Amino acid sequence: MQVAAAAERDARAKLAEALPRRWRHVQAVATKAQRVSSTLSAEDRPLLIAAAWLHDIGYAPGLATTGFHPLDGARWLRQQGFNERIMSLVAYHSCAIFEAKERGLADQLTAEFVDEESTLKDALWYADLTTGPDGQNFDVLERLAEIRERYGPDHLVTQFWTKAEPVAVAAVRRTEARLAATGQPM
Length: 186
Known about the structure:
With about 190 residues, this protein is mainly α. It has helices spanning about 1-15, 20-35, 45-55, 70-80, 85-90, 95-105, 105-110, 120-130, 140-150, 155-180.
């Protein structure tokens, strides 16, 4: 769990004071990831928790270079020597490839980081996409509606979520099924 502790420390240092609302979201995502981690292998549990702490670190002042937080965060994690899978989970979290395409950054993202199809990735997306901006619990469809409302109909973020929604919902529902199979609440 040392990697998860280091991730929490770094996220706190970069987000808590500078972006308190984002920090509340990250804390709630990490708490949810901790709970969901029981559906993963022992090897993947600390990676999920670390990725949950770090998934939005690319928003931190001084780290945002492209304006695309998954890529900016993953690049910073590389500079800090984090595990390759954690970097990639951050780089691709919550349908980031769809937004990268909208921003013209997909080639950079795919050249630098490897996407994975795994229960670990699904669990991270679940934790993020069922947690609101202030840490509140949402169903994934409620969360996507909240995002669209916050950004407005013409924003790039709303446009990419229109395309990405089926992929995001499927990942969340797979994790919900894993939770239900173990008798855990969602």
